[in-house]
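The protein record filed here:
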Amino acid sequence: MAEFHLCANVLFTTSLLFSACHRPSVLTLYPAPCVGTHACASPVAGPDSTLASGFIRGLILAQAWVQTPLGSVQVFAESRPERLVYSSKDGTFKLAQVQPGPDTLVVRMIGYLPRRVPILVPSSGGLWVVVPLQPSDVQVR
């Protein structure tokens, strides 16, 4: 029998509780206010002086009534499509060797609308980014 818990005014089964409620170490890496309030509607990015130059650290969230991390999401910079990466189970991804300057992150997953996120990679240090994905209305029959 499933055991249920309340977290952030949402009822979770025991198996989902850990992933939804106990992620302070991951969430603190992304200083966007919307991450703490679970209200990210648009992508948010900022410089990170703790990262190496050309390095991007990101978090992919499902944009729904409860934002949960999404794993297995494709992410790449348009300037380096051959460096495609996938987000891990906790929704995080890392891209390296992205040239400083303007670029666009492409983020996509089946079942969600693709997102193109304009970014500005700093000339020193790296970049953090949080990208919410909206579920697609397309249904497969």
The chain has one domain: 4-133. Confidence is low (pLDDT under 50) at residues 1-24. The radius of gyration is 16 Å.
